[in-house]
Predict the structure.
Amino acid sequence: MARLLILHGPNLNLLGRREPAVYGSTTLAEIDEQLRRLGHELGHDVHCMQTNHEGQLIDWIQNARLDGFAGIVLNAGGLTHTSVSLRDALAAAELPTVEVHLSNIHAREDFRQKTVTGAVARGVITGFGPLSYQLGLRALSGLV
């Protein structure tokens, strides 16, 4: 049984209330519960964490291996498009990472179409709503 880390970035705590036409009506708590159940079905121990702070995400990523995690599913929110520091933390962690997005970032504003962090992820899943997370977890399960 591998320990897998699900990291949610800024503003994802507002899921279900924030721009439901873009992000849907499913709450973060509901997504986390779905992921824990799916992880159990796949034979993994899934831990979900959310923060609105870039430095906290970086700390969690840097400590992930020491904390016994075998891989990461990451939705960095808006930091996806801007954070070189987050990208560098992922590269240094040397853990398989799958980046996920609820909305299709390629069909949105120009600034959302580039993913800085995706360059160091094993893959990027975008545009399937909460299913993006489940697909990401399944992909990560096949990598660990």
